[in-house]
Amino acid sequence: MSTSLVTAARPEAPSRAANRRELARLFLVLLALTFVLRMPAFFVPVFNSDETFVATQAHVISEGGALYEDATDRKPPLVPYVFAATFAFFETNALWSVRVVAMFAVALTALLLAVEARRRYGRRAAWIAGVLFVLAMVAFAPQDGQAANFEVFMLPSMTAAILFARRGKGVAAGAAVALATLAKQTGAATLLPVVYLLARARGRRGVGEVAVGFSVPIAAVALAVGPSQLLYWTVLGNGSYVGVSSLTLIVAGMFLVMTLSWALCNLPILWKVPSAWHDRRSPSLDGQRDTDLWLWLLSSAISVAIGLRFFGHYYMQLVPPLVLLSAGALARSSRRAVRMTVTFASVFAIAFSIAGYFLHPFGPEPDYATVSNYVAANTHPEDRILVWGSEPEIYWASNRLPATRFLTTPTFLTGNHPGRYDDERDVDADTAQNWKYFYEDFHADPPRYLLDTSPARLRGAHPMSDFPEFARLVKKQYRYVRTIDDVAIYKRK
What we know:
Elements lengths: L1 H8 L2 H26 L11 H14 L15 H13 L5 H26 L1 H14 L5 H4 L4 H17 L3 H14 L7 H35 L1 H8 L4 H4 L6 H17 L7 H6 L12 H15 L13 H13 L3 H21 L13 H10 L5 E5 L4 H6 L2 E2 L6 H6 L14 H16 L4 E4 L15 H10 E7 L2 E6 L1
Parallel strand pairs: 1-2, 1-3
Antiparallel strand pairs: 3-5, 4-5
């Protein structure tokens, strides 16, 4: 009997080995394709201010500072620590380094999607899903599609959660969702399809396993960074940011413009979605329906809409479920349909990749280099500075630590949030609390230089004179030195 078992097992071994070799070959292809399409990462210093914001947080961490207490944001802690670890590994704070890590994250997500597509729809779908994902991830404005954004680091674990859940592994699926949530809060939305899959497969026990897998990593990180800090800065302190009080016709217009623009750029992963919906009741090769993918798409769409800020990189959450649905429909279509889809997707991706070298579709970026060089030349490495406004590029380029935990003032102190007009303010109790934190930090270690970016009127920077108490403090303790590229420089008396 043992001999027959060994004999029966022998044919399976080469098959598994062949599958592993094919997956390795596929991953190398996807990684190479990702690398080529994201080559602007090595030539463009900054794609958007989010990169330099997180890079400044990473600098604070590397100097022994505590996240949220010495450098805060309304985001979970994973990505700043990824930046810090990357800078330490490459021994540079140049942003190409974290973009290389982002390339691996994109290729890994593509591989996971390929694995799932093969299990659901066959070998042909694996290549379709992997390639379409890599192409779609750059098919938008370079400031969104090429930057090392939070979403890029969230997608691998979010996708892994679906793979684990589809296979009935509740603890692993919950832990993967937790990891995605620690990259960005909207990763938690993946609990919807994950819980659905585990509840259907294993009932209450499956749901309980998801809860355990999700809760343990979140609790561990909360203990590491401080439970109250994590809860406040990622959940409770976001009331004014995610509120719907700012819903206006202008915001609705922005939704339509950004959504239609993204959809046009990503038609190759959208045009077969109606076919996937038509066949939604048909079981996949693994004997299950694709209801979880539709729930995943729904949860991702809700995540994009939360806060009513329709930045292009928010739409990245839609790509994985759309790619799987499209791959399933294309696997049942003709070769001509597949070739046409991949060809058009390649044209869009190559066009936006080339545009990444020079295109700035959302207005000019601030001239931060000269003023940053001035700060670096006139301060010591241990000196702290304060940038009034929203230009974290100065912290990053000058390699100087911030004097307060707030790396941008409009978002936290003046009630003007990203994605809103400069004259729009949403001041609440959190804003008042933030001013208390600001003054505590300011007086504990006053900045040697204060850089006022409000004359440039960039990114919602209000004049210091709009805040009399702070204006009096600046007048008493600082003297005006000069203006460089519309940035007024003050030095401590």
